[in-house]
Structures
1.
Amino acid sequence: MTTEKQTDGGAENFGKCCEELKQVMSGEDFEPLITTGGDGILYMSVGLIDIEEDEPGMVDHPVFFCPFCGTKVQDPEKVRELFEDSDNA
Ligand SMILES: [Zn+2]
């Protein structure tokens, strides 16, 4: 067990599995396309969408497995629960 202290972005909750994800989550040198939402769900931007004539918006999808090392980072059922909670709010 390591006892690293890092509290930027969602690096606390996600990014424990490997150095790659940890780097993306800390996003020091770039704007990461994998981010933690306000609901605590880890999202990956999968594309851009044109919203009317405004700036293009990002299309996000929840990530269940780390794209780098394949570790399960969140539970689909838990994510669905969080979704339903935020719908009701
Ligand atoms: Zn990983």
2.
Amino acid sequence: MPLAALVLLAGGCGAKEKTASKSVQENKAGEKMSQEDKTQKTKEEWQTCLTPEEYKIAREKGTEMAFTGKYYNHHEDGIYKCVCCGAELFDSKHKFDSGTGWPSFYQPTKKENVGEVDDKSHGMRRVEVICTKCDAHLGHVFEDGPKPTNLRYCINSASLKFDPAKKD
Ligand SMILES: [Zn+2]
């Protein structure tokens, strides 16, 4: 049965890499410059490296329940990184207790890693904050924060991964 053997072969490892995707990659080569340091994964790839809650919040713009996240009442020194791609987002020294039940910061540690997007969902006009490296949804920024910025970055714990400062 030569036909069956052929089907079996085609169904083996690497069968998913159709030639079509190759030509798409070549077409995109021209825009590679701007996309180069971006982390891009398919829905399935994100689902395998994130928990269901992290996926729902960081990739599908969900919001965790107040006072349920692992970092709203977290006071260790260190850096809060993107749960998806590991980009440095916030520093514990810019964290403050907003009383909202979400981790809150008055500024990002690396401004270039935190982007802002106009968000008109849920009948509100808000500014969504995202990771510029992988477009992960982080939370929202409001203008009622403490000095010196008067900003309040209201961030989901599920979008963050804490990296403790080295004690030496
Ligand atoms: Zn990211």
3.
Amino acid sequence: MCDTDTDIETEIDGTVTAFCYCGWVEYGHNTETANAAAYAHQNAPDVIDADAFTAAAV
Ligand SMILES: [Zn+2]
């Protein structure tokens, strides 16, 4: 899971980008799916967290 804040932003083309201040980002959402993606990111198990992957790869 991620303790950093997530947010969503509507792009000029109408798609919605979900992002997190940890550096995670997903493009091409609508408002509903972007919120769901951000929620899923924040609650994702540590095993698929980018930081956890980096630590495991060392
Ligand atoms: Zn994050």
